[in-house]
Amino acid sequence: MDLLQLKYFQKVAEIRHMTKASQELHITQPALSQTIAKLEKDIGVPLFNREGRQIRLNQYGEAFLKKVNIALNALEEGRREVDDLAGLQQGRVSLDTTFIPHFPNVINQFTEKYPDINFDISHASSQEEKENLLVNGEIDFCITCHPIDYKGYHNVPIQREDIVLVVPKTHRFASMTTLELSEAAKEPFISFKKKQPFRETVENLCLKAGFKPNIICETDDYQIINNLVASKLGISIVPKSLVEKSKLTTVVHIKNPISERIYYLSWKDDRYLSLAAQQFRELLIEHYTQLNVSNVED
């Protein structure tokens, strides 16, 4: 049994598909199958149930995965501690983030100061995936619009953002600067898919306004939403930071219910954070604090 086998096992357990896992690991499918077979032989029991092309952990695999996660996380913490012994001259910061205004500026500011520190940035497609990354110790931080509501986790609000209505330029709402969301109850909506965290935000806002939105089209891509609104297929509720300047659409602010979302920086209290991660956390919080003060003064 070696470290590579454990990492491959962890990936197959996550993906549940041998071919897709091999593609993510950048090895051939036969080579991955052989590695898993050898691991099972070393342990003495099968770890997976094969179901056609899909592969799922059995009871032995579930038990083994828990220990593998602990072991690999411990090794990763050891690597971060070694990085700390070298000071802030090297290291890695890992986080998962939803799109947040000004975030690229934070990365640029940090890398200018610490050019040899690398980033591993992911974008989970759902809140559950985001939380799992943090719970399993795969990332240092996550930036989310839903605080991690578990004991032992820290959530710092860093930014507020308006949620607005985007409508075609020729729409009856286009001449309005603000409206009550209830006025849009009978409109066709274009929205993000259900697995996207913002979809829940949209539905909750509409429920507060007294109606269930008539969503006639859903997608993962805001550019598609913008294009469909521009083509007069419907209207959409979106974060203000995603709105693009267009001659074909216009923005209307929602005055009731209060329509905004809060971004949080979240981390696990008992996770070892490298000096690099600690310094990044400090810089990020300071950056948004100054930005928020500046916006208030303006």
From TrEMBL:
The keyword Transcription regulation applies. One of its GO terms (molecular function) is DNA binding. Pfam families: HTH_1, LysR_substrate. Keywords: DNA-binding, Transcription, Transcription regulation. SUPFAM superfamilies: Periplasmic binding protein-like II, Winged helix' DNA-binding domain. GO terms for cellular component: cytosol. Residues 1-58 form the HTH lysR-type domain. Belongs to the LysR transcriptional regulatory family. This is LysR family transcriptional regulator. The lineage of its organism: Bacteria, Bacillati, Bacillota, Bacilli, Bacillales.
